[in-house]
Amino acid sequence: MTSLKHTGRSIYLLFFVGIIAISFSSIFVRWSSADVAVIAMYRLFLTNLLMLPFIWKYRHEMLRLNFRQWALLVASGVMLALHFLLWMGSLRLTSVASSTVILALEPILILAGSIWLFKAKVNRMMIIGMGIALLGSIAIGAGDFQLAGTALQGDILSLLGTIAVAAHMLLGQFLRSGLSAFSYNFWVFFVAACTLAVYNLIQGHAFGGYAATEWGIFLLLAIVPTIFGHYLFNWLLQYMNATTVSMGVLGEPVFSSLLAWMLLGESLSTLQMSAGVFILFGVWVFIRYGKTKPQIAPAEDNIVGNTPAKPTVV
Questions:
Q1: DSSP states along 69-116
Q2: CB neighbours (10 Å) of residue 137?
Q3: Which of 258, 236, 251 is nearest to 286 (CA)?
Q4: 218 pLDDT exceeds 60?
Q5: What is the per-residue burial (b if ≥16 Cβ within 10 Å, else e) of 20-33?
Q6: At a CB cut-off of 8 Å and minimum separation 6, what does 161 contact?
Q7: Beta-carbon neighbour count of residue 112 at 10 Å?
């Protein structure tokens, strides 16, 4: 029993690590001067490169997918590419707080999709927890929302990017029931990177000639928000349902705004800092009192993923 509780706490700790990791994404994007489609493309290709040392172990599974799995992988990868393209593009047009706060809609979209696709059920405490976190998210971004200039366009891009990542997560819940975390992530990242490569080719964006600092930023994006963020969240789908995992995005406005204040000099009011506490409390309530608890996967499963147990649904 102690071991099970310890493993459950480890899952929550990894969940928190994922939240911190994805919060760095907006900062790295702001530091880069390259086109966002190029940033996203190399972010994902470099992630695949970092995963190559482990590929031999999963070679048989990765090449024995059926038509349905390939179709869902392609769809999930294209949705992830759209998310990066749209959301990262929004960071060039609006503030980090405004862009990330719109991502707070992701759990609602995924919850609605889970109810429709997986017949998920929710309880009162889950709704209360989500509501508290959403109110906090709105408070963080409220002071930065604008209807003039490029801000509105940036907010719209962020919204479309949120819809895309919600579709990506729901497709992932379908796929992760019969596919290891490694195989799923590798192919999804590869499809998304190739999709962005085609887009860059059509747009005539340069594939080379970037300064060493730019390549450093691309690598940081691959390691921090992708490996320790997106990969980790996809891995957690074997322990949590997509709605619960997506609640992590509600913590992103908190840490992204703090990082933007420290590293980019963006303003952060007392109201926004207080709202951050509400967000984290709401996420805690959702997970603590939700019907879904972290499920213990087989002992041989690990962070680079053997075939996991079927993900639970709310």
A1: HHHHHHHHHHHHHHHHHHHHHHTTTS-HHHHHHHGGGHHHHHHHHHHH
A2: 28
A3: 251
A4: yes
A5: bbbbbbbbbbbbbe
A6: 82, 83, 84, 85, 86, 87, 88, 89, 90, 103
A7: 14
CA dist 261 and 11 (Å) reads: 29
Tokens of 146: 């604008």
Of 119, 113, 82, 300, give the one whose Cα is nearest residue 195. Answer: 82
- The whole-angstrom distance between residue 196's C-alpha and the CA centroid of its chain comes to 17
Q: Residue range 85-94: average pLDDT?
A: 81
Rounded CA-CA distance 34/81 in Å is 17
Residue 279 CB partners (closer than 8 Å, separation 6+):
132, 133, 136, 137, 140, 250, 251, 253, 254
d(CA 260, CA 223): 19
- Model confidence at 228, pLDDT cuts 50, 70, 90, reads very high
Does an H or E element contain 163, and which?
Answer: helix 151-175
Distance, CA of 307 to CA of 295 (rounded, Å): 15
Which of 3-17, 36-50, 56-70, 289-303 has maximum average pLDDT? 36-50
CB-based contacts of 20: which residues, under 8 Å, 6+ apart? Answer: 255
How far is the C-alpha of 162 from the C-alpha of 113, rounded, in Å? 13
**Phi, psi (5° rounding) for residue 97?**
-60, -45
φ/ψ bin of 26: left (φ > 0), alpha (ψ from -120 to 50), beta (otherwise) = alpha
- Find out whether 208 and 41 touch, Cβ atoms under 8 Å: no
Mean pLDDT of 205-223: 95
- Please, which residues have CB within 8 angstroms of residue 277's CB and are 6 or more apart in sequence? 136
